[in-house]
Amino acid sequence: MNDWLTATFAVVTIASAVRLATPYLLASMGEAVGQRSGVLNLGVDGVMLLGGFMAYWTVLETKNLLLGVVAGIVTGAVLGLIYATVTIVFHAEQGISGIGLYLFGLGMSELLFQEQVGTPLPIKSFSTVRIPLLADIPKIGEVLFDHSLMAYAAILLVPVLTVVLNKTTLGLNIRAVGENPEAVDSLGVSVARTRLITIVFGNAMAGLAGAALVIELGIFQNNVTNGMGFIAVALVYFGAWRPAGVLAGSLLYGLVTAIVTQWKTAGLVTGAAASFTSMAPAVLTVIALVVIARRNAPQPSALTHPFVRGH
Amino acid sequence: MSSEPVAVRLARRGNVLVPLGAVIAALFLGALMILALGANPFEGYWELIKGAFGGTDNLANTATRAMPLLLVGTGITISFRAKVINIGGEGQIIAGALLSTVTALTVPGLPPIVLIPLVLLMGCVGGAIWGGIPGALKAYLGVNEILSTIMLNIVAIQLMNYLLRDPLIDPLEIERGTRIPQTERLSENADLPILIPGTRLHLGVVVALMAAVAAWVFLWRTTLGYRVRAVGASAPAARYAGISVKRMTTLALTLSGAMCGLAGAVLVFGSESHRLLTDGSSSGFTGVAGFNGIVAALFGGLHPLWTIPSSFLFGGLLVGANAMQRAIQVPAALIVAINGLVVVFVVSSTSIRTKLTRLVTLFDQAAAERASPGELQSADREEVTP
C-alpha cells in the first residue's frame, strides 16, 4: 500500500476517533467534577439515555438542533436534582442509588420512545464546521479543524474545567469537599451546596452527552448508549480525575473504536472476529485500571462518603 | 407494652414497613405516569396483578422469571455483605451460560442424571471465574471492583457475540446461509425437567431456592461466612482479628459470580428453545437480570431468605407488565423505570430507618427510666450515642 493511502486512512481514523470520543468526553468530564467533590454517580448511562431521548424528541418536533441540545442539558439537570436529593439529603449509598438512576433512565427513555415516537424516524445531524484556512492544511487540517461544534465545545471545556478546578474558589471548594468535608464544613463552606452544584453540573453534562450522541447518530433506539455511560465513569478513573486525563482516555477509547471500525470496513477483520476486536477498548481499560491502581493514583478521599455533620 | 403509642409500635416494624413504603411510593409515581399517558392506573395495576399472580400458568411464569433474579440477588447478598459491590452480574450470567453451553456441546451423550448437575456446576465455574477476576484485582492490586466488573460485562458480551457467530454457531445456520448467531439445539439430556406439566416451571426454580438457602447457611452458620461478613462490617477490625481481608474479598466476589453464572446455565437449559442465542446486546439474553437482581436483593434487605419473596414480587412485576401492556397499551418498560425508583427509594430510606431505630431506643430508655429511676442510666446512654 502506498504512503498516500496509508496517510489518508490514518486521517479518516483519527477524525472519526475525535467524533466518537465526544460523548464519552462530555459525560466523563461531568462525572470527574462530581467525583472530585466526593460523589460517585453510576447512573450516567441512564441520564444519557433519557437526555438523549428528550433531545431526539425535541429535534423531531421542532427541527431545531439547539433546542434539542438544551432539552438534553435540562433533562440531565433535573435528574441531577433528584440524585442530589437522594445523596445529599438522604445520605443514600451512592454506588447503588446510581444503579437506580440508571434503571430509571433506561426504562423511562424506552417508555417515552415507544409511547411518543414508536418507530425510529431519522433526525437531522450536526453539520461540521470547517475552520477557514486551518482546515485546508493538508492531513492535519482535516483531523483538527473539521468537526461539529459539539466536538469543539467538548474539547474547549477541558482547559476551562482545568482552570475552574485549580484556580478558582469554587474549584478549591470542590476539591476540598472531596478530600475533607469535615474541615471544609468547619470553615463555614457548605458541603451540601458545593455537592449540589457538582451533581447538577455532572448530570447536565451526561444529558448533553446523550444529546450529542443521538444527534450525531441522527436516530434514537432503545438502549442506544449500550453502556457508554458506564465506560464514561471508568474513564474518570483512567484519567486520574483530571480533565486532561479524561480527554486522553476518551480519545484513546475513541481511537481504538475507530480503528476497529476501520478494520471492519476495510475487510481486515471479518465476521465473527470483529466482535473479538470490539472488546479491545474494555480490555484496555481494565489493564489501565490495574496500572493506575499500582501507581496509587490519588482518589478523592471522601469519594462515596455521604457527609453527615457531627460524625 | 400494650399501652405503647401507635407511632412507636410502627417504628418497631420499621425494617419491614420502610422498604414496603418505598415500593408503594414508587408504584404511586408509576400510577401518575400511567395517568399522564392517558390510561387508567387502577385498571393497569389490576391487569398487572392478574397477569402476574392470577392462575397456575401466570404463577408459573412469575416463578420462572423470578429464578434468575433470586440467583443473582443471592450472589449480590454475599458480595454486598463483604462490602464488595458487584455490578458485573450481566457478564457473570453470560460467562456461566457460555461455559455450560460448551460443556453440553462437548459431552452431549451423558445421561441426564450426570449431565444436568454437570452443566449447572460448569455454570457456577464460569460465573466464578468472571467474578473471581475482579475480586482478585480488587484484593491484591486495589482495582476498583465497580469499574472492573462493568468492563468485564462488555468483554463477556463481545465474547458471547464472537463465539455464537463463529465457533459455536449452529451448523444449520451456515448451511442455510441465515447465520443467526445461536447454537444448535443443545442435548436433550441437559433439558431441565418441567415440574408442572403444561407450564414453563422447571427444575431451575428449585435450584434457585436451594442456592438461596445454601447462601443463608453459608453466611450465618459457617465460620467462613462469618469471616466474609466480618470483613464487610469492618475490614480493619477483621484484619486485627487475623482474618485475611484479601482472601475474603476474592472469595465473596467469586461466590457472587458463581451464583450469577448458575443463573446463566439455568437460563440456557430451562429456555424454551434450549439453545444460547444473542441479539448483540447483553439484555437480549439476560433480560437485565444482572441489574434487576440487585433490586431484588436490596428489597430483601440483603438477606438470602428474604430475597426469595422479594424476587417473586419483582418477577411478578416483570411478567405482569406484559399483561398490562396488552390491556392498557402502556409499554412494559414502565416497570424498569419503577424498579429504578424502588432502588432509589429503598436506599434513600436507610437513613429514615436509622432514625426510627434511634427513636425506639430512646423510647425504651425513657420507659426503663420511668420504671426504675437512676438505674442503668449511664450504660443505656452509651449504647444510644453512635
Textual characterization of the structure:
With 311 residues, chain A is mostly helical. Chain A has a domain at 21-236. Chain A is 74% helix and 2% strand. Chain A has 13 helices and two strands; from the N terminus they run H-H-H-H-E-H-E-H-H-H-H-H-H-H-H. Chain A has helices spanning 3-36, 44-62, 65-89, 94-117, 140-145, 149-167, 169-179, 181-186, 191-217, 228-238, 243-266, 272-278, 280-295, and strands spanning 128-130, 146-148. A two-stranded antiparallel sheet of chain A has the order 1-2. In chain A, helix 1 (3-36) packs across helix 10 (228-238), helix 3 (65-89) packs antiparallel against helix 4 (94-117) and helix 3 (65-89) runs antiparallel to helix 9. The N and C termini of chain A lie far apart (67 Å). Chain B is mainly α. Chain B has a domain at 66-334: ABC transporter involved in vitamin B12 uptake, BtuC (Orthogonal Bundle), CATH 1.10.3470. Chain B has helices at 6-12, 14-36, 41-53, 55-81, 89-106, 112-141, 145-165, 171-176, 204-221, 223-233, 235-240, 245-269, 283-286, 289-299, 304-328, 333-348, 350-371, 377-384. The longest helix of chain B is centred in the N-terminal third of the chain and has 30 residues, at 112-141. Chain B is globular and about 85 Å long. The relative contact order of chain B is 0.19. Mean pLDDT of chain B is 88; it is low at 377-386. At the A-B interface, helix 4, helix 10, helix 12 and helix 13 of A face helix 7, helix 14, helix 16 and helix 17 of B.
